[in-house]
Amino acid sequence: MDLVNECNILDENIMAADIDIKFIATCNNLDFKGNSRNPVKGLVRFELMECLIRIGDEKYCKKGAALFDTHSEAMERLLTDSCDPFF
To answer: Model pTM greater than 0.85?
Structure first.
């Protein structure tokens, strides 16, 4: 949630509860949870990317602001608008 707050991702199209649902859905992959390098309540690199894609989809494709039709456009917008100043 720190990353979401730092990058100012929350707005009228995506709320904190939506982010929590995306995090839980991403962490719910039981195939990898026996690995000590993949914490149960944490994200590894590929899960972080999956979570960001889910957030971009929710923010820019699904809810009231359906600005884009593809995940790649939504992800590009999320990264340039929210995350670019930090990377």
So the answer is: no
Could you tell me the residue range of the domain that residue 17 belongs to? 2-86
As a whole number of angstroms, the distance between CA 27 and CA 78 comes to: 21
The whole-number pLDDT of residue 43 equals: 83
Q: Where are the alpha helices (DSSP H) in 7-62?
A: 16-27, 45-57
Q: Smallest Cα–Cα separation from 79: which of 47, 53, 43?
A: 53
Backbone dihedral angles phi then psi of residue 7, each to the nearest 5 degrees? -90, 0
Number of compact structural domains in the chain: 1
In angstroms, rounded to a whole number, what is the distance separating the alpha carbons of residues 24 and 20? 6
Question: Helix count (H) and strand count (E) of the chain?
Answer: 4, 0
In tens, the pLDDT along 29-82 reads 666 556 667 766 778 888 889 999 999 998 888 866 678 888 899 999 998 988
